[in-house]
Design goal:
Blueprint lengths: L8 E7 L6 H12 L5 E7 L15 E5 L9 H13 L3 E5 L6 H7 L4 E6 L12 H10 L5 E4 L2 H11 L6 E3 L22 H4 L4 E6 L8 H13 L11 E6 L5 H11 L5 E5 L4 H7 L2 E4 L8 H8 L4 E4 L14 E4 L4 H12 L2 H18 L2 H14 L2
Parallel strand pairs: 1-2, 1-4, 2-3, 4-5, 5-6, 6-7, 8-9, 8-11, 9-10, 11-12, 12-13
Helix pairs in contact: 1-13, 2-3, 7-8, 7-11
């Protein structure tokens, strides 16, 4: 007698808001790679979503908005409970501190399997030592059956600070699509901006939310100083360009700094874009000046594009960037150090090419989405 096919599993993913961001990008890549005949997905957004959801191609996905209001809105607990009782998911998968309370609702709604993911901490709790938040995290240990951390740094913090037994933690790196994020093959793409790129000798770029935790003003200040000091370099200021792809609260401050410095013709704030692989291929150097990170998808994508990465020594970033081999690291907020690094790399194209090639090789060896998806499936399947 032939064995019957396994029944499909419904996973209820709970996020605060589903929009442009590294965690959400990771969810898109994961869900698109999980076998649709085995897994169905309900993405429950506490505070809404935007068109970023269109990047999900898996047909077995539904979106639900709870409509949580800012501030102390406790009505969302009841709304979530009703939704979970109606959906009857097999697995509840929450992510980061903003959704961890949904785990208590999951118990009351009798969701049999409960997983929590840690993808990085925000600017209000960079080191994960906030006493109030850790009381909540420790209380949630009683109802969360398993944890997924995207870096060794976060896995160690869950074990040592939050007190989660090591056996209940799986560390799974994000992957990167090496075909989509491939190195530049010939000339730099002009992205419809031939005048901006005319005369460019070195394009410094970054991609990310312009949120406080990303600290883009540090990058902008370093670029301004680089231009001021360019008389001492082999690259004149007129050959330098800076591009930041993304949007957020820090954009206005960064634009004001550039306007004051008189460098508007050499700096582009491109806003949110869906064609990020082409933008990366227009860069010569990638910079991420974050105050805190879990595992940065944009660093992975930049490395896959064969770019040297200059990044802060925070969170899981040292697990990605090999200092002196695939890029360089600096202290958060250290404008002088970043300026020196930018000057060194901008003046040494052979170093950029050498470290960029090493970055691509490191990505091919270690970070793939099939490997990441297999890790998540192993967690989903092993829970009783």
């Amino acid at each position: 007698m032939a064995e019957s096919a396994p029944t499909s599993v419904l996973i209820a993913h709970v996020v605060h808001y589903f929009g442009t961001g590294g965690m959400e990008n990771g969810m898109v890549n994961l869900i698109n790679r999980l076998p649709p005949e085995r897994y169905r997905h309900a993405i429950i957004c506490l505070a809404g979503h935007d068109d970023f959801k269109r990047r999900i191609h898996n047909p077995n996905v539904e979106f639900f908005d709870i409509g949580k209001r800012p501030g102390r809105d406790f009505s969302w607990y009841l709304k979530l409970h009703r939704l979970l009782r109606g959906l009857r998911p097999d697995i509840l998968h929450t992510r980061n501190l903003s959704t961890i309370e949904a785990q208590f609702v999951g118990v009351l709604a009798r969701v049999p399997k409960r997983i929590h993911g840690e993808h990085g901490r925000d600017v209000f709790d960079l080191e994960g030592k906030n006493r109030k938040y850790n009381i909540l995290r420790k209380a949630a240990r009683r109802v969360i059956q398993h944890y997924i951390a995207v870096s060794r740094d976060l896995a160690g913090w869950l074990r040592d600070t939050v007190g989660v037994p090591e056996a209940r933690i799986s560390q799974i790196y994000n992957g990167v699509d090496g075909e989509r994020f491939h190195p530049r093959q010939a000339s730099r793409p002009d992205l419809g901006l031939p005048e901006f790129f005319a005369g460019a000798q070195c394009v410094i770029g970054s991609i990310g939310r312009m949120a406080a935790v990303k600290d883009y003003p540090t990058l902008v200040r370093a670029f301004i100083r680089l231009c001021e000091q360019s008389a001492e370099s082999s690259i004149h200021a007129s050959g330098l360009r800076l591009i930041i792809v993304g949007d957020g609260i820090a954009r206005a401050e960064c634009q004001a700094l550039i306007n004051t410095a008189g460098l508007s013709s050499q700096v582009l704030f491109a806003g949110d874009r869906s064609d990020t692989p082409d933008w990366l291929r227009a860069f010569d150097i990638f910079v991420l000046p974050s105050l805190g990170e879990g595992i940065s998808n944009t660093i992975l994508e930049a490395m896959s594009t064969a770019l040297p990465v200059l990044a802060t020594r925070v969170g899981g970033t040292p697990e990605l960037v090999k200092d002196g081999e695939t890029g360089s690291m600096f202290t958060p907020g250290d404008v002088e150090s970043l300026t020196r690094l930018l000057a060194d790399y901008a003046a040494d194209a052979s170093r950029c090419a050498r470290e960029g090639a090493a970055a691509r090789a490191w990505i091919e060896q270690t970070f793939s989405w099939p490997k990441a998806a297999a890790g998540y499936m192993a967690v989903y399947e092993k829970l009783p």
